[in-house]
Design brief:
The complex is a heterotrimer. Helices cover 81% and strands 0% of the residues of chain A. By secondary structure, chain A is an all-alpha fold. Helices cover 27% and strands 23% of the residues of chain B. Chain B contains five helices and eight strands; from the N terminus they run E-E-E-H-E-E-H-H-H-E-H-E-E. In chain B, helix 3 crosses helix 4 and helix 4 runs parallel beside helix 5. The radius of gyration of chain B is 18 Å and the shape is globular. The chains are: A mainly alpha, B alpha/beta, C mainly alpha. Chains A and C meet through helix 4 and helix 5 of A and helix 8 and helix 9 of C.
Chain lengths: 242, 214, 218
């Protein structure tokens, strides 16, 4: 049995209907455990205070903001090369989730940054890159919304996703360079993965796993909705034809 | 003498907006032959012609033609309002690498007197004649024409029919979607009405991608 | 292919607006900025590279939707697509025509506008170099955005939304190049990055744009 069988809408609907409750349960348990552990059972850091606990939302959402785009890139490629409709619809379904993850990362970053740096916003390379990533998500979603024919929309957004990925990466490096050019070093950025000790690291790991599972649940639900909507269109078209 | 057809279409199915509209289209055109496509509005004539011209992929079946042998003329003439008649035609002649065909084409469509006029000052019928003159400068054997006689008066239709006959006489072929009689008695007629795509459940070709969902 | 370029240039000249509009827009942006930030020369000199680049970028954006939309509306694009020239070449020629009518005038006029913004002396050379190197990428990326939105009724705003994030790297390195030129520090890195981005964009993006046009014509 090949993995491509899941690209068949019917097979996808069957499998996802079976998998969805399991993933939902797993996501709830993992996320709740990680968040409760992180929020209530970790010591307060000496120099950060309580605000440090926002990393349990900030870091996983930032990670997902990037990974969702990567997933969209892969599914777009699968659509453009192998013409599997579920793949295109999964990319469409993932984009709003990615945008929300980007926004969560930016907002929690602002809330965290205010007491830490004394400012809501800093043109730090990392922050700026996320802002640009958010713009890419916006453009991608706007293009999907603007085109009536679903296959044309899938093709064009797929091409945009490919070109956008290259330029998003390029922007990341350009922004790094740009900020170094103005300030000497990006000293404000806190690299959570490297700085935190084990006490914070394990619940954080759990939260990241929880966010991945949450994304899988959401993307499955949304893709199922998209598949149903396409099925409705196909049935209506068939009715017009008959 | 039997000649290989200039273009042959085998069991073609075409889709518009992801829904199959025609299927089982089957014909071949050899040099000197013309085929008139008939059918009610919305039956898929334009979609069929666009598919044959290579602008969109067929749903099923295939089209066999020599590469670079098809000249396509759509509803729109593709004229630039601010360019003169000659400039418009010279552009297309240059694109097709046939600069010497401009003057004969102007003469054939009776546009000599209008040669220096800007396209925006032409009447609808004159624009259409210029659009058809474009076919003459392509130098391609197979003409694929979508409603070529729209807004032409009787004299211009006769002019067009004469140009078409000359094209057929020099070994060309033409595929024409039209509602009116263009006085081309020797042309075969293909009625597309019976070729309307059936619903996939009834054994039709299916509407492409959307059918995977139904 | 040359015929296509000549036709587009001729159309731009005849329709008016081609050369003039984007330049006038650039001028207005340059004039408005001092009204907004105050006439103090030091401030203007400091922000001049950025303003000139953003102004050029916006002026370029203004005419993007015309690259393919006009040909799409009058049916020429269908006919060009069935003509014996590859769509990639069509895109490249269209982008070149756009650059000649929009980018090049901006490059030539920018030093004059630089005077209005008190751009320091050594920066003028780098201003011209940076715009000359960067604006071709703007035109090609714009052609890509125009290709994506060619079938849409009101594609203009969407086009800006799609294209602006793609302009970020060019803008950053372009403005940085002028800034460094003005300070007299090393310009090698932004110069090479800007040239590299433009070269890669001009070489590769037409393929994506051509694919988008073929999809839109289906």
């Amino acid at each position: 049995m090949s993995i491509w069988e899941y690209a068949n809408p019917k097979k996808f609907m069957q499998t996802s209907a079976w998998a969805l409750p399991w993933f939902t349960g797993l996501a709830v348990v993992t996320l709740l455990t990680g968040l409760i552990w992180g929020f209530f059972f970790t010591p307060e850091a000496a120099n950060f205070g309580t605000t440090v606990k926002i990393i349990y939302i900030h870091v996983p959402s930032a990670m997902m903001a990037i990974n969702v785009w990567a997933m969209m890139l892969v599914t777009s490629l699968i659509w453009l090369i192998r013409r599997h409709h579920v793949s295109a619809l999964a990319a469409k379904a993932a984009a709003p989730i990615g945008l929300v993850m980007t926004l969560i990362a930016l907002f929690t970053g602002a809330i965290w940054g205010q007491p830490m740096w004394g400012t809501w916003w800093e043109w730090d390379p990392r922050l700026t890159s996320f802002l640009i990533l958010g713009l890419f998500y916006l453009g991608y979603l706007a293009l999907w919304a603007a085109i009536d024919n679903p296959d044309t929309a899938a093709d064009l957004t797929g091409v945009l996703c490919l070109v956008g990925s290259v330029f998003a990466l390029l922007s990341r490096y350009a922004v790094n360079f740009w900020n170094q050019g103005l300030h000497q070093a990006a000293s404000l950025s806190v690299d959570a993965e490297e700085n935190v000790s084990d006490v914070y690291w394990y619940p954080l790991l759990l939260c990241m796993a929880g966010f991945v599972l949450l994304f899988i649940v959401l993307v499955l639900i949304r893709t199922r909705t998209e598949v149903r909507s396409r099925r409705l269109q196909a049935l209506e078209a068939r009715e017009r034809l008959a | 003498m039997t000649m290989a057809p200039l273009i042959s279409v085998v069991d073609l199915a075409v889709a518009r907006g992801g829904v199959a509209i025609l299927e089982g289209v089957h014909f071949a055109l050899s040099a000197g032959r013309a085929l008139v496509l008939r059918g009610p509005n919305g039956c898929g004539k334009t979609t069929l012609l666009r598919t044959i011209a290579g602008l969109q992929p067929p749903l099923a079946g295939h089209i066999e033609a020599m590469p670079d042998s098809i000249a396509y003329a759509s509803h729109a003439d593709g004229l630039k309002a601010t360019l003169s008649v000659t400039e418009n035609l010279r552009f297309w002649a240059a694109i097709y690498g046939q600069p010497k065909r401009v003057d004969p084409a102007l003469a054939a469509m009776n546009l000599d007197a209008l040669a220096a006029r800007a396209a925006m000052s032409l009447s609808a019928g004159q624009k259409r004649r210029l659009g058809l003159a474009r076919l003459l400068v392509t130098g391609r054997p197979v003409w694929v024409l979508d409603e070529p006689t729209v807004s032409l008066d009787a004299a211009s239709v006769a002019l067009f029919a004469a140009a078409l006959r000359a094209h057929l006489a020099t070994g060309g072929a033409a595929l024409i979607a039209t509602h009116i009689d263009i006085g081309l008695d020797e042309a075969a007629v293909l009625d597309l009405t019976p070729l309307k795509a059936r619903a996939p459940a009834a054994g039709g070709a299916g509407g492409g991608f959307d059918e995977a969902f139904a | 292919m040359i015929a296509l370029l000549v036709r587009d240039l001729r159309l731009a000249v005849r329709a008016g607006g081609g050369f003039g509009l984007s330049l006038a827009f650039f001028l207005i942006v340059t004039v408005l900025v001092p009204f907004g930030v105050g006439p103090e020369g030091g401030t203007l000199a400091r922000i001049a590279p950025g303003i000139l680049w953003v102004g050029a970028l916006l002026a370029c954006l203004l005419s993007l939707d015309r690259i393919f939309a006009l040909d799409f509306e009058d049916g020429s694009l269908d006919l060009i697509a069935t003509a014996p020239i590859p769509m990639e070449a069509v895109v490249t020629m269209k982008a070149l025509a756009h650059w000649l009518t929009t980018g090049l005038p901006l490059v030539l006029a920018a030093p004059v506008f630089g005077v209005l913004l008190h751009l320091p002396g050594p920066a003028y050379f780098w201003l011209v170099v940076s715009l000359a190197l960067g604006t071709p990428a703007l035109s090609v990326l714009g052609a890509f955005g125009a290709a994506l939105t060619v079938g849409l009724k009101r594609g203009g705003l969407l086009l800006s939304l799609l294209v602006l994030p793609l302009y970020v790297p060019t803008l950053i390195f372009g403005a940085e190049l002028i800034g460094r030129g003005a300070e007299g520090s090393s310009t090698a890195t932004p110069l090479m990055m800007l040239a590299g981005i433009t070269a890669a964009t001009v070489a590769l993006v037409p393929f994506a744009a051509a694919a988008a046009i073929r999809i839109n014509l289906r």
